[in-house]
Write a structure and sequence with these properties.
heterotrimer; A alpha/beta (507); B alpha+beta (510); C mainly alpha (99); B: alpha+beta; nine-stranded mixed β-sheet; C: 99 residues; mainly alpha; Histone, subunit A; two-stranded antiparallel sheet; 4 helices; flat; binds magnesium ion; binds zinc ion
């Protein structure tokens, strides 16, 4: 008998199609798992009270012979940055407590249309500002590998949910690494698509020119399957690309089967120094490269001289855009309102924003307001936009020589909760390897490369590809994943500690 | 509020040179908004929409909502730019103007900042006496309107003293084109007149393009007037630097623009002559008193933190599109006036009467509906203008050109006398229906039944035998007395010329 | 080298409509000073010959046909309103004037 929560989305989908299991069984298994472990993990801010109903609807349609999507009936966790009509959407902030959107985000609407079953909304750093999910107004999420450690951020809830087998699939958003860095510290898979490959409509904006929604899963194939559902052109998002995308699931399957590593040119960045990286992280990274090389990949040193300015540029562009995007939370139309007896609407707005925003959000709003204000624009925001050009040029030159670029996803394994909370600058350095992809708009994937020898915690490897070449990442990612899982004798997550009581639906 | 001291206008002009500038906001009449598919309240179909019924997620700044540019609004903006003689930017972009205000759903306005769609143009503005003044245009840019606030609980309905305000986001996101002039020098004593004529010209242009309803009283066209004064210098000396300007906001009729500029010149001159300084500020126009009062001072709170709108892409119209729109442009207003004057055969004075009344389009439409040029002019500059003046309304709001043409048709057919026609017009203006409907309802048609007229004539002749004698003796002018009596008996509903004919006939028969 | 002062932070709080307490102003001044020192290095490579990039993927002329849609019902518009009256959002007295 199988614990349904241990199945991948692809496996669940196959069992649903064959009729071996029902969506109600799959959904109930995950709800039971959430009930059993989420008190410890706190991956969810809200659990749907009608997921079983939705699942029953899918089962009924299947029984009636409806033509269903291949993922129909598979449960899905949704990052709370995405608005949903049937569950509150808070973006991890007190200022949006209880907010009910009158419309669904495009990715949510597409997931529903494909028959995925929303389980609930996952925890995150407030407005996606953070790398640890400690900045959630609703308390931190805990890393399933070690409950005293961070699950990464901002999408720590989605990553922890799939790592803790509370959901097979989750939606995330990535502005500077919020999908990839949590994947890295939780031993899961996450992909940030090419900017414009997935609609941002209904994703509560952090930094509009950097934000991208993407899949959070346990396997590369599952990420590809979910990406196929949510991707593609959306007329509600002007920055959405009107491309004909290939099937990413096909790309992942091809990668897992074939020998795509043979002759693959993999770039490693000369300027990304070993020194800033934990030795266990560097070791895991080099070992993975060696495995690829053994399969015929060619490791090429490339130069990206401007990546070192990436973090600085990012921490100007992001706060600037965020300061504007977050202006709408003003107590007038929705969200928190703090009454100020005898006060004007200006007083009410200012008091509401003081009470409703956490420290990190205020810090970045003030920083962004500064970077845009008269007299500073050219030196800060304007210069940061130029660094963006230089980083794009670095990528162009690199991709003239290599097919993909590989980096460790983040400098360290999961650090302890509270360890960096009072040191924003240290916190910001977590994103050093993931930020360039957001600045340049190129896609990036993180998948487990192993456990760090120094602390036994998961390490992720990141691959970057040229814009629009998301399929290449699924191919390469699936190839390396197949090699490593083979070497490990099973998925990395099999080595994670057992959580709570043994639970899970049986079939 | 203390009444500001004013200097005599002529004296003010002796001492100072006025420098003008205008920002006119034009609401486009597209079906949907600038950045959302919600219905546009500035479109005729949506005039009566209830509050918050024309709202898409992005208009009220809902989390996650995104803007998408309305293609028709872009085309209208390019057409307007071309009609203003502007160059169309090969690449223009949107920017966010950040400030907090409850009518602004996102707390930023999407506008254009450093890269407007149209720049560097000029419009010919014709003054009352036919003089043409060229007003230089700095730019025209696309942006969105804000929602509407209603201030409640105060005695005035104004912001001061209100206890609370209600917000309706129907207007939020209405497509606007903001037209900004360069400083206008050399206006001198004609400054108020130029102000009025400029706004009228912009209205003529957008109407001829068909891109806006252009009703000032509805806010489709809103003018902010900038005025500054600088002291005159002796001949040969370099000009004095520009004075501090004030911006009088949202003056909502052409006549008010004229009055507001005149008032600002007189007010500033009085302050400067007394050794005072002008505060750079916005000022509010008060229609009732014909004065302005201080509004928000410009301060460092005006740091709008503009930056390129990341949710929208550059607008890069092709040469083909620009040329297509250029080819479709209607005649420029000044050229159109020259043509119409010739076509209609009006004298200079007759034509200025029409042009200055702001009723050129109405007269043209009336002629197109079948009236003669002379008749159309007579109605619009005569009776309709008189009523408009008396009621302090725009002539174009009172009656449609089609009704005026129909009215004249009834006169031409002999159904109405001029006098009766004026009564019918009064009914039409009062909303009683078309001219024919008013005629029917009020029973105002001329009595064309000769039998009834003859009976009345015979009766009058019988009661005034002396007059009958005079007529028979060939003193035809004596018939006037009989005409008067008959018209009285007919309650005015007779054609006097026909009555006269019949009187002569009857007098010589009996 | 950075010029972050408590007065500047207070002013930024006014621009950003956040009522900052004196404690917050003090803490933010120190933190922002450190952050700004760090991120100011962008100007080292942002020379005049480098063009700015505002969008990661260059697109242009993305338009929507002028066809109505996407409208919310008045109930949906007001569904999250902290206060409403008469089909509209209600806010307390406004001090400043519109822009
Ligand atoms: Mg203005
Ligand atoms: Zn404007």
């Amino acid at each position: 008998m199988t614990d349904l929560t241990r199945l991948t989305a692809a496996e669940l989908a196959a069992s649903l199609v064959s009729g071996e299991i029902s969506s109600v069984e799959a959904t109930r298994a995950h709800l039971d798992r959430i009930a059993a472990v989420d008190a410890d993990i706190h991956a969810f801010l809200h659990v749907s009270d009608h997921a079983l109903e939705v699942a029953a609807g899918i089962d009924a349609r299947r029984a009636a012979g409806d033509d269903l999507h291949e993922l129909a009936g598979v449960p899905l966790a949704i990052k709370d940055v995405l608005v949903t009509t049937d569950m509150p959407s808070t973006s991890g902030s007190r200022i949006l407590e209880g907010f009910m959107s009158p419309y669904d985000a495009t990715v949510v609407a597409r997931s529903r249309a494909a028959g995925l079953v929303p389980l609930g909304k996952t925890n995150m750093d407030e407005f996606a500002m953070g790398s640890s999910t400690e900045h959630s107004a609703y308390g931190p999420t805990h890393n399933p590998w070690d409950l005293d450690r961070i699950p990464g951020g901002s999408g720590g809830g989605s990553a922890a949910a799939v790592a803790a087998f509370e959901a097979p699939l989750a939606l995330g958003s990535d502005t500077g690494g919020s999908i990839r860095q949590p994947a890295h510290v939780t031993g899961t898979v996450g992909l940030k698509p090419t900017y414009g490959a997935v609609s941002r409509y209904g994703a509560i904006a952090l930094a509009s020119s950097l934000d991208q929604v993407g899949p959070v899963t346990r396997t590369v194939l599952d990420a590809a399957l979910l990406h196929d559902v949510i991707g593609g052109h959306d007329p509600h998002d002007s920055t959405s690309l009107a491309e004909d995308w290939p099937s990413f699931a096909d790309a992942a399957r091809e990668g897992a089967r074939g020998d795509v590593l043979k002759g693959l040119r993999v770039g490693v960045i000369r300027e990304l120094p070993d020194s800033g990286f934990q030795s266990g992280v560097s070791e895991s990274f080099r070992a993975a490269l060696a495995r690829m090389e053994a399969q015929g990949a060619e490791i090429v040193e490339i130069s990206a001289p401007h990546f070192e300015y990436g973090v600085a540029a990012y921490y100007l562009i992001l706060p600037a855009e965020a300061s504007s995007n977050l202006a709408k939370f003003d107590s007038v139309r929705f969200g928190l309102r703090v009454d100020v007896p005898g006060g004007t609407v200006e007083d009410v707005m200012a008091a509401t924003r003081d009470a409703g925003f956490g420290d990190e959000v205020k810090r970045r709003i003030i920083l962004g307001t500064y970077a845009l204000s008269a007299g500073y624009y050219d030196a800060y925001y304007g210069s940061a936009q130029k660094v963006r050009t230089l980083i794009q040029q670095d990528f162009d030159q690199a991709f003239a020589q290599v097919d993909v670029i590989a980096t460790p996803t983040a400098p360290t394994t999961a650090f302890r909760l509270g360890e960096k909370i009072d040191d924003p600058l240290q916190m910001y350095l977590n994103d050093v390897a993931t930020i360039p992809a957001n600045l340049a708009g190129v896609p990036g994937i993180s998948l487990p490369s192993g456990l760090s020898v120094d602390d036994g915690l998961p390490v992720g490897i990141q691959f970057l590809a040229p814009a629009r070449q998301d399929a290449r990442l699924y191919r390469v990612g699936a190839a390396l994943e197949a090699l490593l899982v083979d070497e490990w004798g099973g998925p990395l997550l099999d080595r994670a500690p057992v959580l709570g009581a043994a639970t899970g639906g049986r079939a | 509020m203390a009444t500001a001291k004013l200097m005599d206008f002529d004296k003010a002009l002796e001492m100072f040179e006025p420098v003008l500038g205008f920002e006119v906001h034009v609401e486009l009449n597209t079906e949907t908004k600038m950045f959302s598919a919600a219905g546009n309240p500035a479109h005729a179909a949506n005039h009566d929409a209830a509050p918050n019924t024309l709202v898409a997620p992005v208009d009220m700044g809902l989390p996650g909502a995104l803007p998408v540019v309305n293609q028709t609004a872009v085309r209208s903006s390019i057409s307007l730019g071309l009609a203003l003689g502007c160059s169309i930017a090969p690449s223009s972009r949107f920017a966010r103007k950040n400030y907090f205000y409850p009518d602004l759903g996102k707390n930023y306005q999407i506008s254009q900042y450093d890269e407007p769609i149209a720049f560097e143009g000029a419009v010919e503005v014709e003054l009352e006496d036919g003089t043409i003044v060229e007003v230089p245009i700095e730019r025209a840019h696309m942006e969105e309107d804000a929602g509407k606030l209603t201030h409640m609980g105060g005695s005035t309905g104004r912001i001061q003293g209100a206890e609370y305000s209600l917000v309706d986001y129907n207007r939020a996101g209405v497509p606007l084109v903001e037209i900004v002039t360069k400083p206008i020098f050399g206006a001198e004593h004609r400054a108020p007149e130029i102000a009025k004529a400029y706004v009228r010209t912009i209205r003529d242009i957008v109407l001829s393009l068909g891109i806006s309803e252009a009703r000032l009283e509805r806010g489709n066209l809103r003018c902010d007037a900038n005025v500054s004064l600088r002291p005159r210098v002796a001949a040969g000396e370099p000009p004095a630097p520009l004075g501090t300007r004030t911006e009088t906001k949202n003056v909502n009729s052409m006549r008010s623009v004229e009055r507001a500029v005149r008032h600002e010149i007189q007010r500033q001159a009085a302050i400067l002559a007394a050794g005072g300084t002008i505060t750079q500020e916005t000022r509010h126009w008060h229609e009732d008193t014909g004065t302005t009062s201080p509004g928000r001072p410009k301060s460092d709170a005006d740091d709008y933190r503009y930056f390129p709108e990341p949710d929208l892409l550059p607008v890069e119209p092709s040469i083909e599109l620009i040329e297509e729109l250029r080819a479709a442009l209607p005649e420029a207003p000044a050229a159109r006036r020259r043509r119409l004057k010739t076509e209609w055969g009006f004298t200079d004075l007759e034509f200025q009467d029409v042009a200055n009344g702001g009723i050129l389009a109405e007269v043209e439409a009336t002629i197109a509906a079948g009236a003669s040029p002379a008749a159309a002019r007579k109605w619009w500059t005569g009776e309709i203008a008189r009523v408009a003046n008396a009621q302090d309304r725009e002539a174009s709001d009172l009656v449609s050109p089609a009704d005026v043409a129909a009215l004249q048709g009834l006169v031409d057919a002999g159904t109405l006398t001029d006098k009766l026609a004026r009564q019918v017009l009064e009914g039409v203006i009062a909303g009683e229906g078309t001219p024919q409907e008013v005629v029917d309802a009020r029973g105002l048609a001329v009595v064309s039944d000769d039998g009834a007229l003859i009976a009345a004539i015979d009766e009058a002749l019988a009661s005034q035998p002396d007059v009958l004698e005079k007529i028979r003796d060939g003193k035809v002018q004596a018939a006037g007395a009989i005409i008067g009596a008959v018209m009285k008996a007919m309650k005015g509903q007779a054609d006097a010329a026909r009555v006269r004919e019949l009187i002569l006939e009857r007098a010589n028969q009996s | 080298m950075s010029e972050i002062t408590p007065d500047l932070v207070r002013h930024l709080g006014v621009l950003a409509r956040i009522r900052l307490s004196d404690d917050e102003v003090e803490r933010l001044t120190g933190q922002l000073d450190a952050i700004v020192d760090n991120i100011a290095k962008v100007s080292q490579v942002a020379t005049p010959d480098v063009p700015a990039t505002s969008h990661p993927i260059a697109l242009r002329n993305v338009f929507r046909a002028d066809v109505p849609g996407d409208m919310l019902t008045p109930e949906q518009v007001l569904q999250n309103a902290p206060d409403a009256a008469d089909g509209r959002f209600r806010v307390t007295a406004i001090l400043g004037e519109e822009q």
